[in-house]
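Worked example 3 (structure in, sequence out).
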């Protein structure tokens, strides 16, 4: 897009000031505005004011937000700043797992986000249905792009021929204690409760008791403060050699190349990017339907 538009990226700095890396990676300027992922009213008001100041200074034609918190703060600030086109992409709805007063609060915030936006892009038809059922906005404001997805993927980047070196793949499997005869289930994403990791590990534990030639490869970081896993889940992951956890990786493609099936049991996901990647690599996908 930077070939056709002047792009300005806005986000929290992230760990190790990761936002600065976008300058070289994407070739765009960036502005850091700290936004938490928790319910923090005072910090959120500060972030809205900072975003408002950026929008009034830059006078953008379009503001396009992603993630629930950035969507709420970004759409509200863009509305107040008079930005003509305010677009928000929905990649999932964390609120569907909330109950009681928290659910009421999140529903209200979601409605405010949609009312401040001029167009809402759910990344799946399942999410669109939930949005309409909950009455967050009217159908005319919603648009699912093609058959779904937030922005698709570059199929040439996920071409399996780029990772078909048998020796390199076997070396990675060996490093991860995966035998040539093992069937590998892989999960790629944050290792948190609302991604279905507790259920995934429990199901794998039951299956492994009957089929000891299977392995579970978890590619992603924990988030112990925001959404921790159950103690029994962590204990099984740490004590068995049938489950491998890589932590954060910069390139997930080698792990697709050594896997047989992708598992994605998220509670509230739309149309995740990893599902596209699994199809490119020609491996089976097991996922919830949203």
């Amino acid at each position: 897009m930077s070939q056709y538009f002047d792009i300005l990226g806005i986000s929290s700095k992230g760990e190790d000031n990761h936002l600065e890396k976008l300058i070289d990676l994407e070739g765009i300027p960036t502005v850091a505005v700290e936004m938490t992922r928790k319910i923090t009213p005072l910090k959120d008001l500060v972030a809205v004011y900072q975003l408002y100041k950026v929008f009034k200074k830059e006078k953008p034609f379009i503001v396009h937000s992603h993630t629930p918190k950035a969507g709420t703060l970004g759409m509200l600030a863009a509305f107040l700043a008079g930005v003509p086109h305010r677009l928000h992409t929905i990649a999932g709805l964390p609120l569907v797992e909330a109950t009681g007063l928290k659910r009421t609060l999140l529903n209200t915030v979601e409605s405010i986000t949609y009312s401040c936006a001029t167009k809402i892009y759910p990344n799946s038809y399942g999410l669109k249905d939930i949005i309409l059922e909950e009455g967050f906005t009217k159908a005319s404001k919603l648009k699912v792009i093609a058959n779904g997805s937030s922005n698709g993927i570059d199929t040439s980047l996920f071409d399996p021929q780029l990772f078909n070196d048998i020796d390199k793949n076997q070396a990675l499997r060996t490093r991860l204690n995966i035998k040539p005869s093992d069937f590998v289930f892989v999960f790629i994403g944050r290792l948190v409760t609302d991604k279905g990791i507790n259920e995934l590990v429990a199901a794998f534990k039951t299956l492994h008791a009957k089929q000891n030639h299977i392995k579970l490869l978890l590619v992603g970081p924990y988030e112990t403060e925001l959404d921790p896993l159950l103690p029994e889940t962590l204990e099984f992951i740490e004590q068995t050699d049938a489950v491998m956890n890589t932590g954060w990786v910069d390139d997930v493609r080698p792990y697709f190349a050594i896997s047989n099936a992708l598992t994605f049991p998220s509670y509230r996901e739309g149309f995740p990017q990893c599902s596209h990647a699994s199809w490119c690599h020609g491996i089976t996908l097991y996922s919830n339907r949203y």
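Notes: Residues 41-58 form the longest helix (18 residues). The domain at 160-287 is CATH 3.40.50.2000 (Rossmann fold).
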